[in-house]
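re: the backbone from monday

yeah here it is again, tokenized this time
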């Protein structure tokens, strides 16, 4: 039961000028695809081959004997989630219950934006910045490398990929500029609202 790379919901050039078609080609077409190929090869012929990707990630987390399976599986999942967090029609402000919850838990959308941007900018090395629902409260968390909130009982609502391959071709070392561009122009608040609604 091989995990199949989900198709992008938009063309490779649809996120320009904020993320170039060249970056999407390498990031989705090479990096993400490689994680999925590696993961499928690692679990082929094992009991994990019949498990969902999410269950494999939870089972292999913190198991030193299964680091490669976890790393490739979690990166496959994180990236599939990340692509859904972006839209050529994204950015702007959330609405409805999610907007109300952001205001309640962060004080305002501007404070939320500042906290998310800071988390993405200050994550040391490779990793991710996440908006998660944690025991009924929205929080910003950051994870290193392939780590994911799935293993902490938190429900992912949105994420920003801050591995260098996500932005270096377009922004070089200017991670804050990449982060701001995503938040202001590309975050898919409809996808986030759907995640929040399903988690309530």
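seq for it, each position gets an aa:
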């Amino acid at each position: 039961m091989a995990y199949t790379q989900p198709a992008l919901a938009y063309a490779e050039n649809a996120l320009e000028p904020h993320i170039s078609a060249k970056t999407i080609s390498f990031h989705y077409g090479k990096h993400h695809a490689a994680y999925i190929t590696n993961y499928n090869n690692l679990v082929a012929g094992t009991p994990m081959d019949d498990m969902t990707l999410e269950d494999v990630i939870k089972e292999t987390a913190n198991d030193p004997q299964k680091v490669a399976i976890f790393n490739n599986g979690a990166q496959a999942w994180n990236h599939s989630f990340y692509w859904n967090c972006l839209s050529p029609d994204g950015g702007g402000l959330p609405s409805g219950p999610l907007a109300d919850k952001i205001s309640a838990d962060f004080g305002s959308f501007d404070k939320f934006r500042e906290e998310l941007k800071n988390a993405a900018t200050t994550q040391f090395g490779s990793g991710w910045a996440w908006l998660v629902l944690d025991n009924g409260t929205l929080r910003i968390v950051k994870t290193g490398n392939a780590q994911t909130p799935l293993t902490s009982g938190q429900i992912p609502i949105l994420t920003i990929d801050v591995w260098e391959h996500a932005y270096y071709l377009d922004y070089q070392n200017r991670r804050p500029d990449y982060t701001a561009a995503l938040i202001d122009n590309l975050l898919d608040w409809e996808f986030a609202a759907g995640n929040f609604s399903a988690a309530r």
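The chain is about 50% helix and 10% strand. The chain has a mean pLDDT of 97.
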